[in-house]
Specification:
Elements (H helix, E strand, L loop, with lengths): L14 H5 L5 E5 L5 E5 L9 H5 L11 E12 L2 H6 L5 H11 L3 E7 L5 E6 L2 H4 L15 H10 L4 E5 L1 H11 L6 E6 L7 H15 L3 E8 L8 E6 L4 E5 L4 H7 L22 E5 L3 H4 L11 E7 H9 L3 E6 L1 H5 L15 H6 L6 H8 L1 H21 L1
Bound molecules: flavin-adenine dinucleotide (FAD) and iron/sulfur cluster (3 copies).
One iron/sulfur cluster binds next to helix 2.
Length: about 375
């Protein structure tokens, strides 16, 4: 039976919950707001399936993965889709292809209370709910079971999530399906739903109105200098430089991410998915022609022949093949994770007693300062080159 001895060895994928034949496991929030499995001993028959399926005990390695992934840079040709997508909007193009084959797409959306959960959609209108990175851990619920049912009935499925969520799904299924496509995102960690809840409540109090939408990566100020925007029931809307919000400062300094993230075992190549999608950070240095308009450029890494064949069939995206090493240079989270923020525990211990802005300013100053220094060094280098 599954038991969590080290929190760093549970990514919260919910594969164990989905696998249990007795429905004996539920995901329960810890004091930091991250969910971990808890077994009801009355229901458990000690079959061991939950342990077997956990990607930390038995990572299922997809077959036929390229030894060297193929890299592309590009974007969705539909300007409206590109505008509501985080990077270049390649996700929507892949998802649309699956929906047009009468398939379903499973990815992260907001529920009615702006909690981030995984859900399944089968039409282009609902697909829009998946657009945009939601920087908080998504709750998988019972989607692995639903996906298996669809796959067994011959329905095409695209699953999109963090690398560990895809790994959990692969383990849960335990075999290859011709009708399954998987797409992970470049991931440098998922923030705590408890921190997100606190931030939403603070914003609602400040504005005396219920939040109805949050966009972590609004492109009103461009893709690279993105904004954070909020919409309230009162019709008030705000957008400010994302890096000025306490929520994004916390995320970008890795202070509120899950225990498993700083030692992420899924950040590697080859990845056991069909595609990896990310922002093409560093594009100006290696392929400047792929960012002439600052409207968003996707980095697409393809890991299987099946994935590559699908990509060649897409007519609504512009894609240019790139050198893999050059393309991933500006995006370190593809291959490894930065060490844990040393103030993480202090940050969480103060979460109940102070407002987010105060705690973030107290505990992320050093790393933000480091970022400023790094940026200044980069600017100085550029000036010296001229
Ligand atoms: C927590 C997180 C951290 C990330 N870190 C990086 C990074 O360090 N470097 C980088 O290059 N890119 C990172 N990304 C990925 C990037 O922001 C884009 O999601 C990706 O490039 C796809 O963009 P798009 O324009 O193709 O489509 P979009 O329409 O923006 O794609 C949205 C896709 O992201 C998925 N998604 C959104 N939120 C979540 C979530 N909370 N959990 C799981 N899946 C989610 C949706 O299911 C959907 O498939 C991160 C994304 C998330 C959610
Ligand atoms: S051992 Fe079997 S019955 Fe018990 S919790 Fe795990 S999967 Fe469920
Ligand atoms: S299967 Fe997923 S949620 Fe369950 S213990 Fe393993 S990592 Fe955690
Ligand atoms: S950093 Fe690794 S463990 Fe954390 S959410 Fe991303 S893939 Fe999962």
């Amino acid at each position: 039976m599954i038991s969590i001895y080290e929190k760093s060895k549970c990514c919260g994928c919910s594969a164990c919950v989905n696998k249990c034949p007795k429905n004996a496991i539920r995901m329960v929030e810890d004091e930091y707001g991250f969910k971990y499995p808890q077994v009801d001993l009355e229901k458990c028959i000690d079959c061991g399936l939950c342990e077997k399926v956990c990607p930390y005990n038995n990572e299922y390695n997809k077959k036929n993965v390229f030894e060297k992934s193929i890299a592309y840079g590009g974007w969705n040709k539909d300007e409206n889709i590109r505008a509501i997508s985080t990077s270049g909007g390649v996700f929507t193009s892949i998802a649309k292809y699956i929906i047009e084959k009468d398939g379903v797409v499973c990815g992260a959306i907001y529920d009615n209370d702006l909690n981030v959960v995984h859900d399944m959609v089968d039409n282009l209108d609902d697909l829009k709910k998946m657009n945009g990175s939601k920087y908080v851990q998504s709750d998988m619920k019972d989607n692995f079971r639903k996906i298996k049912e669809k796959l067994d009935n011959g329905v095409y499925v695209l699953f999109s999530g963090t690398p560990c969520q895809v790994s959990g799904l692969n383990s849960f299924l335990g075999k290859e399906y011709e009708n399954l496509y998987t797409c992970d995102i470049v991931c440098h960690g998922v923030p705590s739903p408890k921190v997100f809840e606190k931030y939403k409540k603070e914003l609602e109090k400040e504005n005396n109105s219920k939040l109805v939408d949050i966009n972590f990566r609004d492109k009103v100020s461009g893709w690279q200098g993105y904004s954070f925007s909020t919409k309230f029931e009162s019709k008030k809307t705000f957008n400010i430089n994302a890096q000025k919000t306490s929520y994004m400062k916390a995320f970008l300094s890795d202070i509120d991410i899950r225990d498993s993230c700083p030692t992420c075992k899924f950040a590697k190549l080859p990845r056991f998915t069909d595609f990896t999608l990310g922002d093409f950070w560093g594009v100006d240095e290696c392929y400047p022609d792929l960012n002439l308009d600052n409207k968003g450029t996707s980095l697409v890494l393809v890991h299987t022949e099946k994935g590559n064949e699908l990509l060649q069939k897409l007519t609504d995206v512009y894609l240019q093949k790139c050198d893999l090493e050059k393309a991933i240079k500006g995006n370190p989270s593809i291959l490894k994770h930065l060490p844990a923020n040393k103030n993480r525990e202090k940050f969480f211990n103060e979460l109940e007693s102070n407002d987010l802005d105060t705690i973030v300013n107290k505990y992320t100053k050093v790393s933000l300062m480091k970022k400023v220094i790094r940026k200044s060094k980069r600017i100085a280098k550029k000036i010296l080159k001229k």
